[in-house]
Design goal:
Helices cover 40% and strands 13% of the residues. With 276 residues, it is α/β, with parallel strands linked by helices. The N and C termini lie far apart (48 Å).
Length: 276
């Protein structure tokens, strides 16, 4: 069984921790050792491991895994900001999601994380005017992960797509840094409107499971949107909204609700302690 490479970087704490966790996992669960070596331990850089992992997931008859990997490697090599965002996303998931138990589970298994990094590749293609290939990759990501993010959308770093299933983010949507979206969230349009037609989600926002934010509306910094709400109007910063249509019901305790993931209504009239 291969040992950890002597060339493994010590100046990249996120990658070093992933390798250490995976090495311990390979010893504890030998049946997964080949998989863990192939995905992580055979590589010296996080970007190399991620391109291998995503290529394996996204390959198809029309785009074999080696071709997909070469494409992803080229994107990573030409844009160092993607690598920085990947590492920030890993930290964000580990800090916010109690199911992560470290850095390696999101990297290996969390489809929200993997779909988001695939989006980052597609977005780079879109910006490079390779739009047909970007949309092709978007379609493949949707098929594999059940998450549909248009490659033209603008998404920051420190993003948690918790569970990820059925998240939809439209073409002109903006998601700033340190945002948490739970499963079945839609950042969509209102119909056949064209142009700038999707939501703008500012930093620190938490959007609960099943919430629908529709149209060119702004969710202000540090706001919280309750699960299953339908948001059709702007949400002021540092407010909590709930309902269909969503109305202001209070204020979050934290400046950035996305970071503490508290889905309660601490200042609302609800006395039963029910969450969003």
């Amino acid at each position: 069984m291969p040992e950890l490479s002597d060339a493994a970087p010590t100046s990249d704490p996120v990658w070093q921790r992933i390798r250490e966790e995976v090495s311990a996992q390979a010893n504890r669960e030998p049946i997964l050792a080949s998989f863990l070596h192939a995905v992580v331990l055979n590589h010296d850089r996080l970007e190399d491991a991620l391109s291998f992992h995503l290529a394996t997931k996204l390959a198809s008859q029309s785009l074999p895994d080696m071709l997909v990997r070469e494409l992803i490697d080229a994107i990573f090599a030409g844009n160092s900001e993607i690598g920085a965002a990947v590492r920030t996303d890993v930290r964000a998931i580990s800090e916010r999601d109690p199911a992560s138990h470290g850095y390696s589970p999101p990297f290996l298994y969390f489809k929200g994380f993997l779909a988001l990094q695939s989006y980052r590749v597609a977005h780079a293609l879109w910006q490079d005017d390779r739009r047909l290939l970007a949309v092709h990759l978007q379609n493949r990501v949707s098929e594999v992960f059940g998450i549909d993010i248009h490659p033209a959308a603008r998404i920051g770093k420190g993003i948690l797509l918790d569970h990820g299933t059925s998240i939809v983010i439209g073409e002109t949507a903006v998601v700033e840094d340190n945002v948490s979206l739970l499963h079945e969230v839609t950042l969509g349009g209102t119909g056949k409107q064209t142009g700038d037609r999707h939501p703008k989600v500012r930093h620190g926002v938490l959007i609960g499971a099943g919430a629908k934010v529709l149209g060119n509306v702004e969710i202000g910094a540090g706001a919280k949107v309750a699960a299953c709400s339908v948001v059709l109007d702007d949400v002021p910063p540092h407010t909590t909204v709930a309902g269909v249509p969503a109305q202001i019901v209070g204020r979050p305790d934290a400046d950035e609700p996305a970071l503490d993931m508290n889905q309660q209504f601490p200042h609302s009239s609800h006395s039963d302690g029910s969450g969003i």
